[in-house]
Design goal:
alpha/beta; Nucleotidyltransferase, domain 5; two-stranded parallel sheet; 14% strand
Length: 274
Amino acid sequence: MSEHSTLAKELFKKGYSCSQSIVLAFCDETGLESETALKISSSFGGGMGRLREVCGAVSGMFMVVGMLDGYSDPLDRTAKAEHYKLIQSLATKFKDENQSIICRELLGLSVEKESYIPEERTEDYYKKRPCSELVEYAAILLDEHIQNKKLEGNKMMKVAVASENGMVTEHFGHCEGFMIFDIENNQILKSETIANPGHRPGFLPNFLADCGVNVIISGGMGGGAVEIFNKRNIEVIVGAKGNAKDTVEAYLQGALKTTGSICHEHQHHDECGD
């Protein structure tokens, strides 16, 4: 049990709705003022205004994640997809533990919706409903996510840049070499350059993976190379330009996004490293 989960459960037992209990409990993480947190989450209690749809604890969890890790650029499909992936993952974990994320199913109700008038919070109310435990579990999932994110931010990683004379090269497969940057706590510790060992189909992605690379940055790249990197769980950033170290720093700041610059034309097929 975490401090946030204990607080969220206590808040629910004080009379706050399930969604309010979650969002209010995590104000220290989101930076929201208490009154703002309570107001923006007030519509989601009772499965959204007692409609008994998505559980308010789940909605509150999603709201907190949105404030912490949401996207803001409407054209950034990659960021949108990553966020939806996170939301679906949290929903799956909640459902695996509680068999549903739908309020009426969690409460064992047969009606589609109930009166908009909330029930009085009595001792019997808390005994017959699992809501306080659901709030507690949603907060535990949130704490696990926040902790994992902090651990990820502190871990070591290697970022490789297909380069030539310290600049990002246009074609992955025929680059002069790879600048390898060691990262810790989101900071560059050191870098080294390794010569391109020679291009042949499927070789370079596996070579870099065996070197411990977690991210590859290049100007362009063939679809076959991208597929191999994906299979090796290596993030691919293509469409990059400019100084290699600057692009890595931009990546660490979240300012470097892939453009999807995959080479399909025959004359580039070999050059870009399929």
